[in-house]
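Example 4.3 (complexes with small molecules)
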Amino acid sequence: EQEKTEYKQRIKQLLKEKNAVLVAHYYTDPEIQALAEETGGCVADSLEMARFGNQHEADTLIVAGVKFMGETAKILTPEKTVLMPTLEATCSLDLGCPAEEFTKFCDQYPDHNVVVYANTSAAVKARADWVVTSSIALEVVEHLEAEGKPIIWGPDRHLGSYIQKQTGVDMILWQGECIVHDEFSAKALKDLKNVYPNAAVLVHPESPASVVELADAVGSTSQLINAANEMENDTFIVATDRGIFYKMQQSNPDKTFIEAPTAGNGATCKSCAHCPWMAMNGLKAIEEALTDATGHEIFVDETLAAEAMKPLTKMLNFAA
Ligand code: 13P
Ligand code: SF4
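Answer. The structure with 1,3-dihydroxyacetonephosphate bound is encoded below.
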């Protein structure tokens, strides 16, 4: 505890010295989210993180999240220094969608609009017509429906098939998945619903269709937090990373939030409702990044960044 307090003090001082601001995702650990709040930074979903970094006047952004979030920040504001607690924090969706293979895949369908999730590399974004986050994916696909062109969607197959079902749009899906959400189990969730018959079920659409079917509300992290605030149930079963409980509990101290079960039932699951890469964003790593940027700074190839900037700007304008 003493050590943590010291790290926090030092981070606060460094943020001021370097005119830096902490931008954290809802899946980071509670103490990181609290620190972002206390220091005038932001805690947000991936869309809002991009928007906040883009608009803030700080010289340096320290992005507590995963690599694609740091890269997005750098692409949108190349004049800023973008640091991350660790450059090792990746995402299974990004890893499962190598740019070269994705480009070949897209080249087979030249008459399709290419829509990619923000959880991708700069090179994959550079190949896309649109970049979306889960907050606006449905709206963007509905908007594109008017153009009448079919869509290539990548990389999350669960989110893709959810959107396909909702909109009826003709979509070809890249077969990627999030290791955290993919593990939620419909069978175990049904059993848990029997234990808590009055609980509302909140599900992130990166979860399998069988889990989404059991949901009372489906949406991005920010949409699930809104649902927790607005719904009158006193208990919620939540199928997303448990980092989100910090915000849900903060605004709803009298409500109970329960983790949705994974297939391994805690024993064999790989990630057990917490992203291993989000978990790398600790206080020590933040302090290190602010003390010495070496090995913490995000750089994006300029040519790729210029290409990726186009669909990212479209995303921000669409969401505005
Ligand atoms: P959102 O916060 O945009 O819903 O994204 C979820 C996610 O998995 C980010 O890693
Ligand atoms: Fe990627 Fe899933 Fe982790 Fe989000 S929770 S960063 S989608 S692996």
